[in-house]
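Question thread 4412

I'm putting together a teaching handout and wanted feedback from people who do this every day. The idea is simple: show students a protein as raw sequence, then show them the structure tokens that encode its fold, then repeat with a second protein so they can compare. Below is the first pair exactly as I plan to print it.
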Amino acid sequence: MDEIAGNFSKAFHGSQAHNKLQKACEILQKLTAFIPGFSESVQVNSLIYLNERLLKSPFQNNSTLDFKIPVAVCLFHSLNVVKADKASRPRCKHDIEHVENIMKMSLLALRESQEALLQQNQFSESSVTLTSSIATLMLSSSQNISTLPLSSYTLGYPAPVRLAFPSALALEELLNKHPGVNVQITGLAFNPFKDFDDRNIVGSIGRVLLSSNHKSLQVHNLMEDIEIMLWRNASMETHPTSLNMSTGHFTVTVNITSLEKSLIVSIEPENPLSMTLYLGFQHQPNHTYFHLNITLPKDQVWQKDEEYTWVLNPERLQYGIGTYYITAVLNTSKERAQQASTLFSIITAVTQCYFWDSHNGTWRSSGCQVGPQSTVWRTQCLCNHLTYFGSDFFIVPRTVNVEDTIELFLRVTNNPVGVSLLASLLGFYMLILVWARRKDQADMQKVKVTVLADNDPSSQFHYLIQVSTGYRRKASTTAKVIITLYGSEGRSEPHHLWDSQKAVFERGGLDVFLLSTQSSLGELHSLRLWHDNSGVSPSWYVSQVIVSDMAGKRKWHFLCNCWLAMDLGDCERDQVFITVSKKELFSFRQLFSSMIVEKFTQDYLWLSVATRHPWNQFTRVQRLTCCMTLLLCNMVINVMFWQINGTTARRDEQVGPFAVTWSELLISIQAAVILFPINLVIGQLFPLIQPQEPLPLLPPIQAACPSDVSFEPLSLTKVVEELKETVGFLLRRNIYLLSECEPSSWSSYNINQLVTLLSSLIYSHLEGQGCHQQTGPCWANVIPENHHHFCCYLLRVVQRLQSHLCTLGPTQVDQPTDFLDAASELQKLQEFLETHMLPTEQEPSREATSFPILSPEGGKKSTSNGLPRWLTYICWLFLGVTNLATAYFTALYTLELNKDQATSWVISLILSVLQNVFIIQPVKVIFFTLLFSLILNRIPWFAKEKEQQTMRILALSAKCSSSLPGSRDKKNPIYVAPSINSPVTRPEGTLKEKKLFKLTGDTLVQIAFLILLMTTVYSAQNSSRFYLHQALLKSFSHRFSEIKLLKHFYPWASHTLLPNLYGHYRGFITDGNAFLLGNVLLRQIRTPGAKVFPIGMFPQEQVKTSHQDLEDTENYGVNWQPLEANSTKADSIWHYQNQETLGGYPIQGEFATYSGGGYVVRLGRNSTTAIRVLQHLEQSHWLDRFTRSLFVEFVVFNANVNLFCVVTLILESSSVGAVFASVRLDTLTSFQTSKDFAWSVISQVLYYLLVCYYGFIQGHRLKQQRWRFFTKKKNVLDMSIILISFVILGLDMKLISLHKKNMAQHHCDRDRFINFYEAIKVNSAVIHLMGFLVLLATLQLWNLLHHNPRLQIIHRTLSKAWDEVVSFLLVILILLTGYAIAFNLLFGWSIYDYRTFFSSVVAFVGFLIGISNHKEIIALDPILGSLLILTSVILMLLVIINLFVSAILMSFGKERKSLKTEASLIDILLQRLSNLLGIQQHQNTCSGPKSGASPKPKSNQANSQMLSRLISRH
């Protein structure tokens, strides 16, 4: 400030002083923007100081008086900071007073500077104007009774304000008391009281102040009003309505909601024309019936834009709140009426004048009114007092009734985007409509109940079977499917599920069959499904089977969710399923997993057009029309919210790397949010009004009569088949019993063996129900009710078999003994089953497995009439009208846009549609799926769709005739269940396909993970770090390494450090780009004086004692004298300050680790202070022979690259008396938003979401596998990546906290040195962890390629040659250590590379790989150096390393011989990728023929020799 003021006092009119003052203010603005804590009060105080220096400066003669002083920029900028700073605080009266005080201080400083300028002004003009980027101020002095009345003052950009005083009669009393009046007019381009009042004050804020003798004059209740004209921003959005009219009149409807506001009607014709406006209240006026009228254009106006503007103040709007109609009638001649139509635009708005009431802290309007010269762009306020003035402005929604709106479409060629888009959508809709109609007609053929062709016409009991096929890939089947039902009273015959008129078991399909039996099966407990594995795609994924007993009015659910296939799932095409209870059926896991797919395919509106289920009554045509309605609603909402003037003006403000502006994104989000309830209503419109099917009359419930055991006698062959079928059923019911039974037992035809096997299986089933942990997981969910029915079935089977055997007798078999044994075993089984069933029958209550076909609520509703069918036509009419209306208004709105605006609107529309398709619809589906899964079992109403579908199936089944003649070929092999094999081994091709599919998915996921990781890592890095390092290193390290003694530090600091540290602009270093943050710190570590050369210790041993523990911590007086000699302050440069006081941390130097404390000197914030401090240090010998190390520490911030840099210059004194210099530069990124900030945040959020998902998966595996989890390398690698990612996240949070802490310390004390060492260490840890994380992620990607046999060779080679490798590595380590010690001892005293043992090791390894420094060694000692170099080359390169490589090559050759010739998964994957891309790839086998295997050892030997020669030559 002193320097700027001095330069200003030399020559104010010179450009140099003006530029320096401008630079000072710019620095102050940058500090305010960069440092939030640089508060407005501190800023204004600094500027008042600058103002005082300015007033003391003598002024030279000026050639102009209307100059601009940059101090105003700083002062008004501080007021803008007040507005931004208060936005985040609660509103209180203290804050309002604080803002007013700051403004008073700023304006007072400006007024004093203006008065000083006026006093020294030698010209006749008596006014001075100060301007800035956000404010304008005019000061006019010595106004009296003759000059002030009827005078006017105008302020220009950036806050245009015009002030006009009234006549002398109104000001006579004031001017008589104060003959000389100073007028101060302030125009502000922002509202400083925005956060203390909710009124929408727009445009300029004007303040008028009259003063006399440095005292403010209170002006109020004048007889005449003072005129204040306040302009609005030219870029303000007005949203005009364009009209192309040929009828000669139109009507505008305006709704007035306030009694205090004035209405402005502005008309902008394309060509000058005359018209008359008529005003009416709640009716349309005409030339004979109206309340007010006016003829435009006006004759006498102040500016041209008033010609077609009509201002209606509250007095003219005498009817108050309500609807007003304004009719415009063109005053044209007959000749002109025959010309083309007239084009013009209309704007209606309301405005009001306000003043700031400082006592109540609010904007008020009393004493102010809107004047007749107000327009859309400015407001004329007429007030009887002086203070702060402002005005609001609001575009009133209006409707325009134009009789010939068709004329508006004549301009479609100017901007055809909207109309063309609508026409394209209409054509696209018609094309898809034809396809959807055909698909609906085809789906109608699939909605039927199929009566099985192999039903017995005489059967009396009927079962409806609903089979649901899953949505898995290749879930449909072409095989012939057979079903068998098992109940407590018996089983049904195997039935073939097929339909001759339609395809069955399609993906996601529902097939309904009617199966008939001779007798009732009782309570079902099991169901058996198999197929014959025929057709092109026999694999079948069955989701669920529901069996309904038409006679008993009960139904059972069988949850399958498995593959019946030979190459998928469990590789079984024959399986048995058991019924489920209500608890399992309505469990959250079951409901969510089953409903999520159904909801996505049926309720996801956009997707369901293609995936609609045939049984769903919400047709594709209806869905397509709803999608079209949503799209048109989206278009009209987007174009209504589109900001015509403000959107395309900032196309450079893009979101990350995408060419999408923030305004386009925000408008799309607004439209998507508004569209969400419309989406819910339209999506449920047709499903809610679907007519209900009338419930057919079901037959009365028949009691299930037990089947008679005295059947018609069967032959022995039939008995054996019955035994084999029962055994097969039991084995399929518990597949884990296959491993316990011999295959010969169930394939035998010996009746005794079959009965014995049956007995063992029954015992296993009945005992396993009580101890399912030993039998298998299939018993884990066995329900007592199901088990009871299963036992009843087994009892019936055993009784029937025993009856047949008794009928046959032992004479009809070859071995009567086996027959008698079988009969005896069956008798025991019967007794065991009867005994086992007694406890279960005596249980008071069991969980039921059967459900009523229809719920009681559904049965009651079905008896009443459903909704009338004509509601469907109402819905169609509603959608049609909505589509026409939205399309019409969309076309009208888009015709008002130009092509650039229409293009931006299309981008916003596309974003909104994408949000609706990919965000809103999936979120809606997932939300409702979660909701229904939680409350479906509690609120049956939500299962209404299922009830309606069941009623529809029952209605269709009632129309079917079950007495149709059927044909059943009992000899058809499809009715024979597949033979039971040993535990299935999956086909090799299937396993390879699964592995290939899994490998492809893992590879793609890992690549996506790696891309997100790379994006996250590199978005957090700054590529300018290197250049900032180089710039600072070049500035401060010049000749620094030449310092050999401590006394040389002072000349270097005077000639290099200070000139580069303090630049021409205060606060910045010399380059003018980096800001010096805080103070510059000189800190020295001293050695205790008594321990420098103690008695009995040689100087060479001093190095050993130079450590942090031997640091001098005593306090001294001036010149390092004892403390008693002089008294110094606690923070003196002669007092020791520990690292806790300084906030420092230990620093690692070249020779030792130094603490963060020491004796500290602060150089100051400017060069003058720094030079004086250095001179004082040199004169007082602050650096002496006891100084162990000296640190020069400071922090700079470069706002251009958003980087902090902590510079540490270190001088370390050694025992020999020399000083060694080193420089450390550590960078840290500032946490400020940048252009790519949004993309960086998005990538990090996506990355950590993926990491959380991986963490959940790994946690689940860890819970299952326990300690075995850590035995797999892949699991350890994944857990390492997850843990490191979360550690990095925690360190980032810590880094943000440290950054805020450091900046808070700096704001608290700006002369304090802020130590960023902890933040630097955390940032360094983050960078190192990120590098290690990228390495692990890359290794994880490489780990996915372990299926490639070529890569497996490397692993096997190293495994086989591990012993030789370890031996050679040990020999190499011994030789390396020996030579490193030798070179260190012989040449460490003169060659820098061999100064220590570790550096000698590094130099020797470099020598072996070709980084040679042999010339220095030979020059130092030709004989011994040459001998060491020669022996090392011979031993290390020619012998040991060659043998090492040869051992690896020999193992590699052996493993290469055993390489299989079959293609690996990687080869198959690459081949398929090449075929997909159309690339021809040669098929090369992994290994050659056997004949070519013999020369390989020679080839390996040749390779070894060649490699040896290359190494030796090197």
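The second pair follows. I'd like the answer to focus on this one:
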Amino acid sequence: MYKVLSPLSKITWVMLAECGAKLAQHFFGPQPGIRAGGGETGSSRAGLGPGLGLGPQDVDVQNEVGGRDATRRKSNMIRVFVSSTLTDEIFQLLLSRVSEPDELALLGRWFIKDANAVPPVYVLQPIGTHFPHYDDCRPEAVQRRNKSLLSWRLTETRLLQLLRSAASKAEDDGDLTAEQTRDFYATSVLERELNAGLFLDPGSSVLAVLRESPRQPDAPRRLSRLLRAAVDAEGQGFMSSLKSRLLLHAAPRLHLVQLVGGGTDPRRPEHARYMSAFCREVAEHLEAEINGYHGNTDEDEEEEARFHNELCVQFAEGVCGRDQILEKLHLVMKKGGALWHCPLVVHGGTGMGKTALLCRLAHDVSDDAATVVIVRLLAARHPLVQDIDDVINSISVQVCRAFKLALPPLTADPAHRFIDVLTEVSQRGRKLTLILDSLDCLSEHRSAKKLRWLPTQVPPNVHLLVSADDGGAALANARLKLGEEGLFHVGRLSLGDCDRVAAARLAAARRKLTTEQGELMGRNLEAAGCPLHVQLAVAAAARWTSFSGEVELHIGADVRETVTLTMLMLERRHGKELVGGALGYLVLAREGLLEVELRDLLSLDDDVISEVYRLSPPPSPSLIRLPPLLWSRLRLDLQDVLEERWTRGVALLAFASRRVSDLVSERYLTAERRERSHRILADYFLGRWAGKLKPASLPGLSLVLSDRKVPPQPLWFGTSYANIRKLTELPYHLLHSGMLAELQQEVVGSADFLFAKTQFCGVSGLVRDLEHVAQQLDCTESRLIRDALDLMRPGMDFLQGHIDASLFYTELLARLSSLAVEFPEVIGHLCAQCEERLLEKSEPVLIPRVSFLQQPGGALAHTLTATHQLTELKGASVLSVRVLDSSAHLISLAGDGSLRRWSLIGGEQLQCVEGAGPLDVGASTVHLHLSNDLLAVYTRTQVKVWAMDGPELRPVSVSCSEGAELVLGILADCVVSVRDFCRIRVLSVGGRASETAVEPAERQLTPDACVTLANRGSVFVVSKQGFLHQVTSYKTSVSTVTLFLRLRHDDVVLSACVSPDGRLVATGAADQLVRVWSVTTGSLLDSLIGSDSPVTSLRFYYNFLLSATVSSPEVLVWNTKYDTRHRPSPRIPAGSAHSALTQDGDRVYYVRDPGHMEVCSWSSQTGSLDLPLAVSAAVSILELLQLKRLLLCGLDGGTVLMFPLAQPQETLGIPPPEGAARILALAADTCENRLVVAYDDAARLFTLGSRDGGISVEGPLRSVTPSLLHAPLTAMALLAGERLLYGTACGEVALGDFLDDNGGAARELEPHGGAVTCVVTSGSGTHALVGSEDAVQRLWALEPLTLEHTMEYKGLLFTGILCASFSDCDRFVFTGSNDGTIKVWNVNTGGLLYVQYLYSPVVRVLAARSGLVALTRQGSVVRETFRCPDFVSPDYDPLRNVGNASYRVTSRDKDQDQNWDQKQDQDRAHVQDFNPAQLHLMSILRAKPSATCCLF
């Protein structure tokens, strides 16, 4: 529970140990080994948390006044000590008030002047200087140590008396103030901590909880004297003073708890009750603070920008010796600012001051008010390795806010978003300077150090500067990408510059050196000339006093030696294990460590504990901790090496320099110690030793079990705040410690951990963690879960990470369910957890039963979406494009015949040639070919060749085929064609030609798709007959024409390509499948499922296959080397014209294209196709009767075919009416005994019966004729009583009656604003839903016909519903929409209960047992269970996971209708006296308005 509400706030914890035990039980449950009565030791101890300025210290404090042991409590509360330093002025004043020579000698012996301080000070000498056995803890030196200890106490008492007496005299003389005199008297350590922390900078987030002392009762005078003697008056005064100051600083967030009765006596029962109440109140306040904290993305971005800006200001100060390179940078930026230019790269050795140089440049540029400067110092977050996507996303957001631009969509590629933002800033004429320091600190994710994200050209008015270390991969790739033009080297500093930097740093520290010390420093700085070396040397020299001996004066000749000497000094003072352990944990931590975490880790490290207690045993073997004083001393000596950083609201300790961290790692972290330290870190963040006894082996003691007093590590601290420290550190340390079982159980296979990490650290961070696991362990399960989360990333980015737990678990389950059987231990356990969490929800939820979303592990690796548009060609489509390898140019051929050359950097058009290509041709029939310096534009009948002379295109030749000659392709400068479908011809640009015949002669070559393989000198031709031919050419002659294989396709082949090695051929067909064939054997190796439209373009790229289609801006990237065991679930072709689904979802019937004359039958269980059902005409409508298991096919000619599912060969039919009307819709009643066929002119009613074990049809019995003013009927439902509810293409809704003697004249109902898409009835026949393409759907009660609810939904992509179904219990309505969602509505209230994204429009939905079965337009079958509690909280928001959506429900007034029905019953007796002449319609309407009007 280490949480700070803002980076500037400070939280103070002051509590007793027994409070800590109770608080731990409140937050984390009962902990074994902790007694609620006050811990195992029974001692009273107050802990001060981090952030108070003096470092963490456990101070013995007793703020409970009164009791029998007041003297001991007073000694614990008050620490009397001699000031360690006195200014020269004050010390001389004190000496002037001392008259005795021995007293002057005593002061002069213990206080020595340090002339290196500015101003000079007198320093109290270490106790061991005059009492050498004071620190000797060896058992044989006990007597000498006791003697030294007694001597020091006497000396300390005498020094205090002298100083106090002299200070009092000086105060009496007016030379000292009362505050200065008070420093020589007793003060509370707690008060000193508060003075240095809370009272110095109270902030706005202080939470203080104090308890009041009991009021003393009135008593006789003698008893009062006894009470006053028992009460510690001095301590009570100190605590009263502290409380009054807290009231001033902590109000209004100060909470007082009254201590009453016998609560002061731990032996009485009232004490336990009081402690429970006290801890409960503290816990409630803390829990309210935690639950009230909600992370804000905007605040996080502002904090990140503020952090880097403040650091930039600090680094810019004191830059010396860099004027020349700064001048060069300013000059280059000024010259290239008006044109497109390359980024600038500053490079140099580690520690050479590149960061300070760029910060100084940023400071100089910011002097121009018109220029916005944005800085990212990547090394400032060390040891955190940052992801390039996160960095450039953060920069893009900050740029947009600075210039008030619209934020680009998160779904776009970060690098493209970055370029688009910079371009928009440039186009607006604004000035921007971006500084990205330390590229070597980027992670390896997406090969960031290869700099593919770095633009080669930056637009005008925008400057981009980066820095990299010499010898690193980032600098090498920058040279390859940008050349030497934009590189600037940062060299060594001269000796004079080093001296000036050192003098400035010493002055800032208020220190100086003696002449000898200055000469020593100068000799060591001369060789290196490194700013980091100067900084470390100054830090070491700042500890020198003017009286330091030569043995204390050590500075290394370079950074490595200086760090080594510093480590040796620390080891001598504090111990090698303690120093190595503390620094080693800081090196291994992913983001750094809290001070309290580091102290806990050192307490868990047995090597450190053994060193600390090597000479004397711990006070209590059952409770072993690192003594706080040891850490405080070490922390003070490390202040120049470490720094405190605010990250996510907490203060973390980390190394100030990446170079120092690397050197510390080399010195202390051997392979064995690294793994052991990772294991201790992993155990700590697992909470393994919280409340448990850990074995310890100490010198002089046998193996003991001790409590290390480390806190638990829950995943959640409250209902809305997770343990971010655990989420960040635990996966990293489990991986590197080799704790694989815990890694799979606690991270990879934990649904709760995955959700918490996604919610608070982002899906990108979680994907990177799982990627590291998959790479280092070759873990298939981790890779599959990572891929699943990667597939979920676009949806989460759209919601900006604010997703609900149910949405996360649902989507994860919908992607991984099919893999649970194959990987039961991890993925199976993960899916079971997701289902369990969903079942625990007290809100409506849909629980997937199968994988219906794109699952991981298949061939589809990536989906690339176009994010950048060069321009828009008015009235012309782009038919073909090619990128020139020699430059950043692109050639495009448009449908208007124009050939254009574009710049890929600026997007501008460089050249346009009209008439270069044919007019009005399809994209699959025109091609661009590049070879050497020639560009060819060819179709099947014409070839135009152009020479590329630099940036210009010059026509060379034009050739047209004669007769039945078709162009197959171009090899080098030769055109390969087929003549008369039987002879291959090769024609060079120079006019030379050769021919050869196709063998065998009876096989005609009718080309369907052609692929040119220039490196093999071959053209592969796929004929319409499905054969694969290879034409091999040498120069201008045909070498061979080989008939290879028979490639069997189910549809027309639209594209083909051959792998670079010639072993594989891939074909794309109109059935949306990509097939991969073996050229050697002709066998079908794989069928790639995932495209949503016919595949019109294919290309191999190493082990990947790229496919595209003219109907989508997406490019699919397929991995040809994927594990075939993880093939995705099969599905029907996307976008099928008509489809029908069985109620159990086991079988789907579909018609692929509108013109097809066959119905396919597909099993969702096996993924196999049965023999198609042949029909005589194109299918216009497809319906399935679930009870009778009867498939209905409406044909264009008006015929209705009926296929029994059990015996599809026994086909029945309803002949078309006279005039061969078109069938518009089919509908049956709930019992499926009646069937309605809607034609253009009327809807006709038929009876379905059984005869001789089969189905019989009788009719038409009756008909309903729609109004001539209505549009064509689009959807209908047959109601009870042979009534027909239908809707039309223009939104009209009407109710017809087949029993009406007037020919079924329809009654018009409330119309819709768009075409009616579905009309469905409930299973009980009591309700009907009418949905349309507008935002309105209406729920009607049928007995009598009454409009119950009007449900309006508005969303970003919502264009109405496509299908609907009532649940099996008729309590809910499921609707499938064009926006790719399934929505669940409450029939009783009309309210929206749940929205689920399926990422594809839902074309069919059916009620199943306790849930639904659905079919998406992509062809996936969806099976889900719906859970809804009887009571849904009023605070529940079904749209919390839907962006920019709203809904409204308008329901009829049932009370008003009930009163109106009662009035009708009263007047029913007078109906026989009704006279139509007496009716006055307007008076009736004025007298009684009605919510609904029903006429029958």
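Top answer:
Good format. For the second protein you could add a caption like this: The radius of gyration is 42 Å. The mean pLDDT is 79.
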